[in-house]
Input
Amino acid sequence: EVVLTQSPDTLSASPGERVTLSCRASQSLTSSFAWYQQKPGLPPRLLMYGVSTRAAGVPARFSGSQSGTEFTLTISSLQSEDFAVYYCQYYRTFGQGTKVDIK
Amino acid sequence: EVQLVQSGAEVKKPGESLIISCQVSGYSFTSQWIGWVRQTPGKGLEWMGSIFPGDSDTRYSPSFQGRVTISGDKSLSTAYLRLTGLKASDTAIYYCARSGTASIFDYWGQGTLVTVSS
Output
């Protein structure tokens, strides 16, 4: 079974900063990989799928990439509405989440 | 507009059973998988199982095998999650979500809070 380990657990950043979130897989994966954003009291929202394809309505400041077993979500210029928890997913396995909060 | 609307919050006692519904609209119920994902503070997001309502093909997580049943009613465009033998550790928010292949969940229900307490 695949294990996804996200880092860091919490990332403190300021609006306008470029931030990078990591998700490392315990084994090689296909491209069936996704990122979700979750805000308090709401369900997760699909952000990215197929490693680097943005879901409908997701701003271009979000991008995804892969290098080996490490997957990365980058927010090029953090906006106030981006402070949330981010989860990675491969098939039926989720990472533990990275919380992005205000510095 | 695709919508998944879940039934309301539940309070249960240990050992009881739970049924949550998820009514979909805005697309053909029989054409996409519906998955159930629960969220707890301790274990984060956990996939419990999925159903393809078109042919009732169902898959379950080994973590819940034997306690969970997922079903669908095509006439009501509604999927159901049944969980038996409830424990305090089943206290969680339960979500239904639509997925295509590879279990990528593109639309989610609003969540159903389930509290298990004696």
Notes: The radius of gyration of chain A is 13 Å.
